[in-house]
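Possible regression after last week's pipeline update?

I re-ran a chain I had predicted before the update to compare outputs. Posting the input and the new output here so someone can diff against the archived version. Not blocking, just want to make sure nothing changed silently.
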Amino acid sequence: MKVVVALGGNALLKRGEPPSAQAQRRNVASAADAVASIARAHAVVVTHGNGPQVGLLALQAEESARVPPFPLDVLDAETEGMIGYLIEQELASRLPDRRIATLLTQIQVDADDPAFSKPDKPIGLTYTAEQAKRLAQARGWSIAPDGDVWRRVVPSPEPRRVLELATIRLLVDAGVIVICAGGGGIPVVVTQGGGIRGVEAVIDKDLAAALLARAIKANALLMLTDVDAVYLEWNTPAARALRETTPRELRRHPFAAGTMGPKVEAACRFVEATRGVAGIGRLDDAMQILDGRCGTTVRAG
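New output (post-update):
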């Protein structure tokens, strides 16, 4: 079976932890245990989040006034390499006989995607209203309130095409465990002349994982996070976990836009397009989620 494993941000940095190299390596080691348990029996492609890592690079840039901040597509490429290195090294120690490769992955978006006129994805550091206004004027940023603070917001366009798809397929067919499309991939547009250029945007990592899973004709898509299942009425006394469901059932209910919503949408898109199975649940339960014994399983109705 061919499985795309999407590691949530908690695979690299748990809530409230400082973004140190030691903390990330320790958490990646746990994630590698989960991935290795699946890879021993199945062909695996791994993707991952990168929000805290991009935030860390942005913070480092803020503290170095001598160097202008790098654009988001470059930060995405840097974090794909850094995180891929950590995952690849930990997997190699658990699966010494397997070949593993990290691939920088560009994902095409439409230059006229409506998201570019309505940036709403918060990224990076938090600021006071005065700081945010000053940075917006100096750097041309869009800013928005995030609770009691202000943050930069960027477009989150729809992922359309994985540019390195042929390479990924080649590697998977050769038995390689591929780590790719991290953080939703590097957002790029393709010009009429065939040129490629990066854009200031963030692609939702779960929607990118669903696109990747469909494109490589995966049998299963696992989205691993720090919540044990998809819940209805989350954070209320009436909360209840969905253990087995369908896209039609899921689309009847609202889910939080910044957390579970994209995972549910990604699961629905994958199952509707492939008739495969999607699983959402806790990282430590990875193999049990694939077997349908833990988490939320989404199947075609």
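Follow-up from reviewer: compared with the archived run. Residues 72-94 form the longest helix (23 residues). Marking as no regression found.
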